[in-house]
């Protein structure tokens, strides 16, 4: 299903000349240096294609013949490669014999095209036949850098604007190269064709090495079946192999707008036809730009309105949408999650995710947080590298399938609250969303938590959280600026074993109330009475779910102190 969907996506993109997706047998590659020669094969100059892209320097991307998969063997790419293959640059004398073999293989691959009547090919062969290629290289200002970095290079005639490998005759010849491998039925397309022995590498997944990784590979005999080896164990034609890997590399490209990072999962997405949602989707999960921090909230608000009012574009209702999460696994790439559905289905599920996270907050906070910001709130020191492994993928699966959030998420949030004694907006939003989705799944709608303070909620955990917030507020008014208040000292034990802590805090409260102005004292006594009327005794302990409600009650009550006008309460 994954490979078939990617092949269909490739077919759609290849029919669009503006997509810039590589045709069969080619790929787009960043080539830092171009060797410019004349029709006689004489060296003219070396052209630098690099440019400044923000803080980074990037090379211009060109359409070149598909790269060869090599590990330790000698296998030249066609009409482009690194400086060792082209010039025979020897950086390590112990490799001089191997480099001579590389240079010869590069020359022979071009000659094997058998189109020397093409001016470009003829010129390259004449150039490579020179006995003093390194001395020609040294005529360039970039000689020292090229010898040191061994960059990719290709060729251009000085009269052309395009590379020699992009000349029409060369392109046609590459497309017409006859099949030399085994013929069989492709498991992806169902068509008969030449089978791929090895799959092209997938690049752009965070954490993989620079040479990329594979979705499909058989590199040990233990993985083989029925005496077959490598690609014969999963018959995929070269055509389908090229299509799905090119489509995936296109989605994973540096400048791709259809790629986001969710935890350790590099996530790509696409629709089966052009859709506004394809461009809109990443903005719902990415961090908003620093120069426009309101963008996420604006996009979510627009999505919620569209879903609530049923004004999604008519064409999007049945349009298929695909989401693929990938992560590195040694030399392979593993699938973390895969979801296929309609845009209407995903829109409703993503909207529900943000509905569930809605929570009262301070005015300076954004209405909605990205999934990255929420995940960091579950991690030690707020660092992404400390996010619990597999959490991001499992959470994304629950969001996209409309399921209750993973227990792992809830546990991670509760651990951080207990460890840091910080009941933040992000953490409480996740707790509320977790509890509400679980309540709906179990058909216990009466247990759903509200966005802001709920005076009618009689749940013991919620009431105790409110009580703790009031006790903390009383202490703060008596001792403003105190270094370590009751939250720092008692939050963890109060939320776990209230019977051990709450009586102590209630006695301490009496001393604090005596120091407050009469009006404030009456206000707090009344508030405490409203909360305690439903608490007949302090329970010995609260389970983890009740501890979550404790956190919500505490947060709601704290926010109520800042959002409600208490003017009438303070009048004597």
Automatic annotation (TrEMBL):
Pfam families: Cas_Csd1 (PF09709)
Entries under InterPro entries matching the protein: CRISPR-assoc_prot_Csd1-typ
Lineage top rank: taxon: Bacteria
Name of the protein in its database record: Type I-C CRISPR-associated protein Cas8c/Csd1
Species of the source: Legionella pneumophila
């Amino acid at each position: 299903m994954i490979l078939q969907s990617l092949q269909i996506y490739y077919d759609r993109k290849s029919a669009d000349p503006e997509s810039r997706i590589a045709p069969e047998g080619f790929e787009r590659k960043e080539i830092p240096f171009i060797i410019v020669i004349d029709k006689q094969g004489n060296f003219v100059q070396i052209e630098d294609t690099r440019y400044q892209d923000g803080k980074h320097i990037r090379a211009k991307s060109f359409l070149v013949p598909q790269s060869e998969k090599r590990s330790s063997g000698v296998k030249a790419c066609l009409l482009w490669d690194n400086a060792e293959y082209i010039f025979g640059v020897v950086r390590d004398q112990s490799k001089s014999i191997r480099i001579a073999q590389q240079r010869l293989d590069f020359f022979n691959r071009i000659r094997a095209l058998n189109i020397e009547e093409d001016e470009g090919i003829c010129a390259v062969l004449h150039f490579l036949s020179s006995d003093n290629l390194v001395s020609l290289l040294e005529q360039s200002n970039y000689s020292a850098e090229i010898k040191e970095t061994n960059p990719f290079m290709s060729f251009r005639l000085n009269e052309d604007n395009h590379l020699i490998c992009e000349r029409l005759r060369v392109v046609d010849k590459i497309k017409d190269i006859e099949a030399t491998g085994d013929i069989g039925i492709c498991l992806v397309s169902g068509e008969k064709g030449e089978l791929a022995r090895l799959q092209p590498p997938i690049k752009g997944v965070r954490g993989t090495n620079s040479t990329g990784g594979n979705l499909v590979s058989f590199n040990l005999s233990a993985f083989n079946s029925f005496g077959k080896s490598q690609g014969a164990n999963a018959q995929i034609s070269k055509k389908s192999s090229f299509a799905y890997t090119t489509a995936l590399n296109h989605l994973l490209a540096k400048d791709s707008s259809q790629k986001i990072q969710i935890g350790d999962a590099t996530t790509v997405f696409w629709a089966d036809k052009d859709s506004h949602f394809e461009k809109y989707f990443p903005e719902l999960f990415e961090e908003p730009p620093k120069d426009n921090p309101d963008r996420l909230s604006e996009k979510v608000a627009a999505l919620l309105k569209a879903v609530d009012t049923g004004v999604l574009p008519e064409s999007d209702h049945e349009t298929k949408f695909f989401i693929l999460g990938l992560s590195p696994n040694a030399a392979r790439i593993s699938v973390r999650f895969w979801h296929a559905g309609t845009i209407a289905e995903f829109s409703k599920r993503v909207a529900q995710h943000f509905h569930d996270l809605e929570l009262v907050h301070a005015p300076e906070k954004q209405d909605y947080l990205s999934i990255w910001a929420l995940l960091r709130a579950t991690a030690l020191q707020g660092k992404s590298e400390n996010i619990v492994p597999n959490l991001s993928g499992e959470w994304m699966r629950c969001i996209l399938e409309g399921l209750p959030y993973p227990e792992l998420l809830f546990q991670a949030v509760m651990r951080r609250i207990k460890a840091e004694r910080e009941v933040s907006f992000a953490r409480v939003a996740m707790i509320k969303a977790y509890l509400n989705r679980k309540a709906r799944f179990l058909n216990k709608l009466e247990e759903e938590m509200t966005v802001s303070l709920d005076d009618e909620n009689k749940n013991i955990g919620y009431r105790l959280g409110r009580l703790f917030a009031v006790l903390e507020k009383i202490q703060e008014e008596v001792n403003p600026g105190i270094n370590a208040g009751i939250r720092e000292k008692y939050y963890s034990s109060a939320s776990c074993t209230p019977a051990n802590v709450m009586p102590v805090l209630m006695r301490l409260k009496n001393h604090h109330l005596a120091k407050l102005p009469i009006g404030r004292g009456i206000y707090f006594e009344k508030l405490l009475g409203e909360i305690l009327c439903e608490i007949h005794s302090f329970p010995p302990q609260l389970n983890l779910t009740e501890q979550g409600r404790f956190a919500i009650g505490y947060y709601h009550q704290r926010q109520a102190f800042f959002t409600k006008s208490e003017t009438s309460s303070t009048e004597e």
